[in-house]
Amino acid sequence: MNGALPRAGSILGTPSARAGLLAITAILLFGALAPLALPDPAAQPDIVSGALQPPSAAAPFGTDELSRDVLARVAAGARVSLTVAAIAVALAMTLGALIGIVAGYAGGAVDAVLMRIVDGALAVPRLFVLLLLLAAWERMPLVALIGLIGVTGWFGTSRLVRAEVLRLREEGFVHAARALGAGPGRVMFRHLLPNTLGPLLVAATLAVGDVILLEAGLSFLGLGVRPPTPSWGGMIYDGRAVLTVAPWVSIFPGLAIIATVLSVNLLAGGLKAALSPRDA
Amino acid sequence: MARWLAGRIAQALLTAVIAVVLMFFLMRAAPGDPLARLSEDRQLSPEAVAVLRARYDLDVPAGRQFASFVGGLVRGDLGTSISHDRPVTSLLRERLPASLYLGGTVLILTFGLGSWLGALQAIRRGALDRILGAASLTLYAVPSFWLALLLAWLVGVEWRLLPVGGMYDPFLPDDAGAAARLADLARHLVLPAVTLAAVNIAATMRYQRTAMAEALAQPFVGAARARGVGERRVNWRHGWRNALFPVVTLFGLWLPLLVTGSVFVEKIFAWPGLGALAADAVATRDYPLLMGASLLVTLLVVAGTLLADIAYAALDPRVRRP
Amino acid sequence: MTTLLEVKNLRISFPGDAGTRVYPVDGVSFVLERGRTLALVGESGSGKSLTALGMLQLVPAPGRIEPGSVVRLGETDILALKGESLRRIRGRRIAMIFQDPMTSLNPVFTVESQITEVVHAHFDVSRGEARDRAAALLEEVGIPDPLARLKAYPHQLSGGMRQRVMIAIALAGQPEVLIADEPTTALDVTVQAQILEVLDGLRESHGMAVLLITHDLGIVAGRADRVAVMYAGQIVESAPTASLFARPSHPYTQGLFGSVPRLTGALGRLSPIPGNVPPPDAWPSGCRFRTRCPIVHPRSEQAPPLLPVGPDHLIRCWLAEGPE
Fold it and tell me: C87 CA to chain B: closest CA distance, Å?
């Protein structure tokens, strides 16, 4: 794969990539603009008779057990999930790139030690790491949740970046920079880093999907985003109690997750294709 | 080969050790007090709390705690579960078989279906390829707990085709024969296995398709066709056989996925395995149990990855006999 | 001599830009005779490998063989065959060996299984019999200690041995025609001669017709009975080997000879042919060589047919009608 960033036009090469980009933009807009058109997700207009209403013109996704509009809550959940994912992924990518570049460039003992630790960390399933961390923390603030998700997600990225750096280390431009007196810091960040941005971007896009699923799972277990902040995972959990009479309460948030992760993955596929030019 | 094997095992052991050390520090670093919740829930007196603290080694400095932790591991003692008040090890041992049944079934499903469909995609191309590709891409985006709920509701409750929970029918007569028991187990296994397998099948399909397309593009495939070898044999014996090993290495990705998914799926289907145990431990803030489960799960992942590497070597004669 | 296989007006097309089609093989005709070797010579891009693939209907998608093409083996029109009857021809009556034995042999199967697979595909014999045949074939292609070699995997063998194994596999079907597509290109020079010897010997002992495809004029001399030179999808010169080497008559052939370094003779400049082989979508109209030809012929805007310049010696060039 070519390391440099792809040109904007080439990302839209395949129809599926275009669809992904379109979909994710639609979802972002939906989440951002929904408060303008939809009722307040926390509003509980008529708990007695307005609860658990099936989808209708008034409430396209129906209402939940507290008569809240499900569509509005799904939109609010979009904002939360996407924000959490974006920040957590940014954190993970940064850490991973840092460690990966250092390990790849320094080589030797530093590389060996770092990578052994990464191997060990990767052996523990990420969910369990988060469970161990979150289970003990009462009333964890959202910022901390995002931080923890980010901090547990950099291991795979560091391997990826390291591989790129190993490949690039022997390229001409690196030797040239060193011959001109550039120190290791400058070589790593001014020269190597920009060339890893391509694969990093693809990995980041895929990671967003993974984090959305992870956060939804945590929220489902009561460990992620806490009520009353709406989250897709939490909504699915709440809907569990009324599944047989009001399945829409759980179904729609799930569909939202699928749509979002799917579009993000399609976009990642488009980015990847843009980075690997087909030979004519 | 023997040398390679020894090296690979040593590597796995090292990884396991590092993972355990990391988990220990995780446990120490976790903010909050495991006992705070417990004392909240059960209104414990300060004396009782002190006793519990001593029992769970919570007031001791890090070094000693680590030493006793390692000592316990070596002895096979993972502490005592706070919520069940039993040794963690015995709880784990009790729940392990159910997880293995489930995991084993999912493995067969994933590998069999995922590999076959992915290879078929690369062979047939055209509409089938596109449809299966879209299906796998979509499935990959499905949250396992949501799918579990949906299937439990539709298949179990609405259509009443399969049981929704547990591993066996409590009303099965005591003198039921082995066949009946097996059938009962199978019926309970279907929904959790299908749910867990869904995402993994999707991932496997995508990977296998790529590997298969690459294998089919190799010159020896065309050469076999040129010799008059039948088309089916060309595709499956020559093409697929060479596309299998990348899929075997997928284990490294797939085992953690399986383990993670099982936490939700086992809980929702009340399947008495390790995943449900972990989920319960989370709910009750049962730290020693959660830690024990995490350790076991990590070791299973390391072992599984090692087995996958060995399988790879067994499949590729270039590694086996250089 | 008996004609075993006749190729007439073989045209293979591929899709080009914007719905057009290009013809990397454009009207190729030749015959293969029992016990004789025909060398098909050309640079990469001339269409020679594609011609070979076309003969067995192995043209990769999206290419296709154009109607009007004929490949006749005895009484059978190969291009009209489909499915099982086509499969029965491949390997059994026409066999092909490929350029790179490392990638043309399946790395996960033993030598034995790859040979016996062909035997079982075409003959109804027992496993023991197939194994015996495999051992005999290995011996025939000059591999020492054949029984041990049967159990080997391709990566355990040297390049020359792998190519011998390929030849053995090709012979397993007892074919009448053998197509060798650049059989020596991927091998060391010292090994090349050995492989060519093996092919020669087998051609004689089995009475096969051999089509030897190569870009290397050096291996043609002394090995082939007849040479056909290909350029831009067409045969531009066709002659008995001695005739071709004595009097190369098409400017392209002359250019090929001129650009080959010689060990003997006076030292002089190499004279490479200027320019590159044009791709199929950029072929000049009329004579396709005219953009690189040192001679500018007034009629070169018209596509020349194959014209005789000597006994059994044809060139696709207006110069055959006399210099102007």
Answer: 5
